[in-house]
Amino acid sequence: MLEGRYTAETTFPKHDHRRHRPREWLINGIEKIAQLRFLERPDRTLGQAAIAWLLAEPRVMTVLPNIYDREQLAEFAAASETPMLTTDELARVESLYATNFGIDEPPMAFKGTMTAPTGVGA
Hints:
Strand content: under 5%
Order of helices and strands: HHHH
Number of domains: 1
Radius of gyration: 16 Å
């Protein structure tokens, strides 16, 4: 979704797993991404910013994004060469995330969740 290829009218192919998701998933995702566009800069794509955001979490050691073509491989491989997110950018993303980007939707139901054990430092 971060590439900006999808619109509210997008339909996914018959065997694409995203076709089985509720339509609101796509529409809300597009709206959330629009609110993250402030992270884009001439020297950093939104995909690279997403990788930087994930790696800003001390408990995250590596990121394995979905890669669909050579251009995306080059983009993501260059993420470590782009500017780190600033403290203000990280705080703004955290605020958006904490409020679900101002979108009223039920929480996603994941097959499993991972929580940090209590009493264990990051």
